[in-house]
Amino acid sequence: MNREVRTVVYDKDLKLEAYQFEGIMQKFPNHFHDYYVIGFIEEGKRHLVCNNEEYILNSGDMIVFNPHDPHACEQVDGRKLDYRCINIQPEVMQEYVREITGQAYLPRFTAPVLYQSELVPSLHELHQIILDEQSDFCKEELLLLLLDQMLKECCDPGPPEPAHHVTFEIRQLCSYIESRYAENITLNELSEISGISKYHLLRLFTRQKGISPYRYLETIRINQAKRLLEQGLQPIDVAVQTGFSDQSHFTNFFKKLIGLTPKQYSRVFNHGPESARLQESVQ
């Protein structure tokens, strides 16, 4: 019988999450995170779409997502996925970058996939130390050295230039969605605000942001839901506060994007001060 294991650990020293998914077949729809994701494929083969570009991932390939990079993935040839990653919040990444470079900025990594990367062994070692919940400074040393290499090899030197490819109308719509995500936003509203017809709005938004307006809204809701769950709120209350029509819709969409149910994710952060770990095994 197939065995699926999902493990999540929050490391309070490094202030980051470590995920390990073993034996999963789950398809992840187009979405984005408001944090950095640095991961690698242990086993399996996946089809990835990131920023409208397609990739085929194999064992030993490294994945790097910037905040707000839209991405979706699914298995290839029915192969199960073994995958590990660390998630780093922007404010934490900025502090690490300041430590390494002397400048506090948010890097923009240039490629979402590094094929057969020489950085994978270091990331694997760091990830395993986090999963083993070791408390010595070896893990911080590994993380700083890994990020130093990534800053040198995987992104342009120095603070990135501001992006100008998103028009004022689309930036305005993003701000509107981000400030009113808990409300019942309609396509008519977005059309009136932007002065763009609904059909052309959908095409323009998706082309510029790499994700449709409604998927953008639901992703904003999920990212906010994560913060509320981390604070100890109950999933039923989080569903209401983030604008989902009911708890079932919230639970289903949360698992589609995060790989865990809201209740599972909440347990990572609400086991008491000495523990921040979840391991779920399904036969």
UniProtKB/TrEMBL annotation:
UniProt cross-references to InterPro entries, sorted A to Z: AraC-bd (IPR003313), AraC_XylS_family_regulators (IPR050204), Homeodomain-like_sf (IPR009057), HTH-like (IPR037923), HTH_AraC (IPR018060), RmlC-like_jellyroll (IPR014710), Tscrpt_reg_AraC-type_HTH (IPR020449)
SMART domains: HTH_ARAC
Keyword entries, A-Z: DNA-binding, Transcription, Transcription regulation
Organism domain of life: Bacteria
Chain ranges of the HTH araC/xylS-type domain: 171-268
Pfam families: AraC_binding, HTH_18
PROSITE patterns: HTH_ARAC_FAMILY_2
Protein name per UniProt: AraC family transcriptional regulator
